[in-house]
Specification:
- This is Porin family protein.
- By secondary structure, this protein is mainly β.
- It is built from 1 helix and 9 strands; from the N terminus they run αβββββββββ.
- It has an 8-stranded antiparallel barrel with strand order 1-3-4-5-6-7-8-9.
- A hairpin with a 4-residue loop joins β7 and β8.
- It is elongated.
- It starts with a helix and ends with a strand.
Amino acid sequence: MTMRKLSSFVFLTAIATPYAQADAWYGSAKFNSARQNLSSALLTSPRVTERVEAPDSTKTFTGSYSVGYAFTDGWRAEGEYTRSGNSTFDSFWSPFNANVNRLEVNSQRLMVNGYKNIPLTHWLSFYGMAGVGVAQIDAEGYQSNDTRRFASHRQYNFTYSVGLGLDAKVNDRITFGTGWRYVDMGRIETGYNTFTNRINARDEQLKGKLREQNVFFETRVSF
């Protein structure tokens, strides 16, 4: 089952839940300005001695869509699908200092999020949030140039997030929001090298831990 089919199933299941459970159903769209970071980067070649330069963070823009319900006491629960985004990370390793190792990552997420809103005024509220779910991650890359590829590898990782933000209620149906969140998508890795190395072995991979911080803007509509 693909990530998009699974997200559709979750949203339809949420809509089918009895109305008595919630004070108001809503749909939401977010625009995310995300900065992904690769920590604990590793090149699994027995011929390298140490990392010369670690991968930097990469900025990407994605959208996400949610269906949820809001309780009368300020709690909200939702299912959220975040569209795929691409990131690249370059690292250099001695004794082959001139050879770039590029990791190319495509990630998308399906999360279940919980929110707690605390009113500040009759129209403005502060909230904290946390979420758990799964990330679909495709990782591949190359060494030195694009003809020396690491094989593509797809994995599904447990993912969690925490964040905070502000909501501004425009009227009974429409709310605008902005917030920040941290997302941990776990360890990722490419497939093995498809190119021929010095000893004609398939023993090299790129690995690391994928994390994300994003600032988002949201429009939420009750129905």
